[in-house]
Structures are given as C-alpha cells and as structure tokens.
Amino acid sequence: MDGVLGAAATHVGNVRSENQDSHLVDPDAGVFVVADGMGGHAGGSRASKIAVATVSKAWAALPLRRLVARYVETGDTAVRSELVGEVRKGVLAAHRAISAAAAADAELQGMGTTFTGFLIAGGDAIFVHVGDSRAYLVRDGIALRLSEDHTVVAQLDAVEKRGTPLDYDRESYEGVLTGALGVGEGEVISTFIVPLYSGDRVVLCSDGVHQYVEEAEVGEVVLGTPSPARAAQEFVDRALAGGGEDNATVVVCKVVEAGTTRVPDERSERHGAVVAVSAFLRGLSDQQRETIRRISLPRQASTGQEVPPVAVGERVAYLVLEGAVDQDGVERIAGDMVYPDALLDPEPPAPARAAVAISDTELLMIRRDDFVEVLGRDEELAEILRANVEALARG
Q1: 142-145 vs 190-195, strand pairing mode
Q2: What is the pLDDT of residue 41?
C-alpha cells in the first residue's frame, strides 16, 4: 500500500524455550498483526499461527476488499458499520478455528492467543483487539495508547480510578486474561476505528514488550530511530535488557502519506459546526482546535451502551459529536462534554454510575494524560482550556 511502511522484530526472550508469538506485516494489503499464544508447549504457538493465517485470508477476501473500496469512496456510515462487522468476523473465524483445533487434540486443549491488529481502509485504520497485547499511536510526539488490556488487573484498576478503593493482592492477578481467541465465546473482542495522518506511527506489541517499555518511552523509541525496522528492534532490545521473561514481539508501522476516505459533506459540516460552538474549545484558534482533535480518538456508542469514565488505562472525557448521552440524569447532546472534570483532576471522583448513550452516539475521547501533556507544551492553550474545563465541571 502506497505511503505505508512496516517492520517487525521478535525474540524468544531470556527465559522461555519457545517463541509462541506470531505476527504479520503486509504493507501492500495494509494489514498488521501481533498475536501472543498461550497454552502448553505446542498450543500457544499453534494458536497464534492459526490466528494470523485465518485473519490474513479473511481480510484478503474479495467481498471484504470490495467493502473497503465502497467505504473509501463514499464514507457512508452504514457501509462503515458493515465493513467493521466483516473485519471482526475474520477474527471470530480465527477464534472458532483455534477452538476446533483444541477440541480435536487433547494436547492442545486450553490453547488460545491474544490478537491485536488492524486493516487500513483509505484514511482509517480498523482495529480488532482481544487480550493483553497492545496498540499505540504516536502522533505529534505524543504516544496515545489505543487498546484496552483484557485482564483482571485492568478491570480492578478501572474500578479504583472510578473512585472505589480496593484491597487486593495485585501480584496474584498479574497476567490473568479476561479474553483471548480460542477461549469462551469471543464476546470480549473489541473493534474501533482510528483516522490516520501522514507522519503517524502505529506500534503493536505483545506483553513481553510493554511490561518493560513504559508508554512514555514508545514515542521516544519510534521518533528516535530512522526506520520501522530499527524501532522494532529497539523495542525488543529494551524488553530483553529489562528482564526478557517472556517472548517479545513488536510491529511498527509508519504512515509516510496517509490515504483518504471521503467524508460526506453533510457529516463533515455537522461535526465541524459542533467543534466550532463547543464550550470546551471556546476561544481557541483553528490551529489550537486541530491540536486537541489530533489527540482525540473517535468512539461510537449504541443506544443503551455505557460510556465508560475510565478507558485504555486512564480517566477520560468525551466531546459529543452526534447523538445524546445521559450523565447522572442530565442529557448531554452534540457539543457537550461528558466527564470534563477528568481532564484536570488527578484524583478519582466519588463513585457514580457511568454515563449511558440514549441514542446512537459519536464521540471524541480524550485521555487525561494526553490532555495534560499537550497543555504542558503550550501555555496559552493551557490557560484557555483550563478555564473552559473548570467552567464545564462546575456547571
């Protein structure tokens, strides 16, 4: 695929005897994947290989590729939903294939794999994720974590960040997954879309990398090395130097020139009008609004779906672009903010129920850490936004 470079590095680590990770780097097809297998001497490696092979075939199928072309040409939301569904079906096919292989061989029972991967469709990346491998986006020098860890520890951390203190032995739950391909019914598999810009880097990695490389280091590595291949090797080298107790695999993708997806004029104008009148962005220049938009991640919520106050490991706020959200009995509509206090208050709030979408809703999600980092770079922007957020939190 023109304008996209990708490379990978993998290592068995300093302790393990077998590398059960698998990966896929296919810039021509715009497909990038990391899978971290688990389950016995042979099972984990088999599961991760099945996942990569099955998804590669499903995402290359002609009907899906026709959907990609239709979405790029029209930007139609119904086509987008259909495309995301088909991309997810490819991963569900891998889930079923792993389950079937395990059922057919007693030595493979219990095998499974994490899966974190994406397919490029024009100017967007469609992600599918399950387990505790991770996806990061590095944009404008800031590393934005994209994926949620499907682990017991991540669930407990989210409860605490919502304001409910817990007393538990963290070490007892380290590494315990709440979702993986080949395990359960596949209900934990998540999908999301991220618009891509020229200069973006996307990093996919197994937990054998991210347990040793902090989020703040992700941007440092990809921006400090001249190529995806060198960056990928640097991630693995850091994991090995940090202990290397697990297999370590990383894929690095560099967007040299982003593709385009047509956005219907009416939708573009509607969202642009919302951003222009939002009290959250009041008083900002067009360039300053663009700065905030570039660290915001699009999210969709169906009617009745929870809009979580903690996501991807951090407290978050949302700008409503379309639809409506009920937050503590108050209806938040286009232009309103949900959880604005999360952006500036480092302490978790008093426990409260999560907001709920009361119609199909499109939002921009902003993590507190990313917001604070941007404000630290621009005093004028910081002064205006702090005043805006304080006013929103009060009222």
Answers
A1: unpaired
A2: 65
Q: Are residues 162 and 200 in the same domain?
A: yes
Give the helix/strand (H/E) hosting 60. helix 40-60
The CATH number linked to 114 is 3.60.40.10
Tens digit of each residue's pLDDT (9 = 90 or more) over 20-77: 999 999 999 999 999 999 986 679 999 999 999 999 999 999 999 999 999 999 999 9
Cβ atoms within 10 A of the Cβ of 388, count? 20
Do residues 42 and 108 lie in contact, with contact meaning Cβ atoms separated by under 8 Å? yes
Same domain, 249 and 269: no
| Nearest of 77, 178, 67, 45 to residue 119 by alpha carbon | 67
Does the residue 260 lie in any domain?
A: no
191 within some domain: yes
Residues 80 and 186 in one domain: yes
Rounded to 10°, the helix 368-375/379-394 angle is: 140
Tokens 């538990």 belong to: 168
**∠ at Cα 14 (10, 19), nearest 5°?**
40
Please write the tens of the pLDDT for every residue from 114-147: 999 999 999 999 999 999 999 999 999 999 999 9
Which residues, including other chains, have CB under 8 Å from residue 369's CB and lie 6 or more apart? Answer: 215, 314
Residue at token pair 């024009």: 122
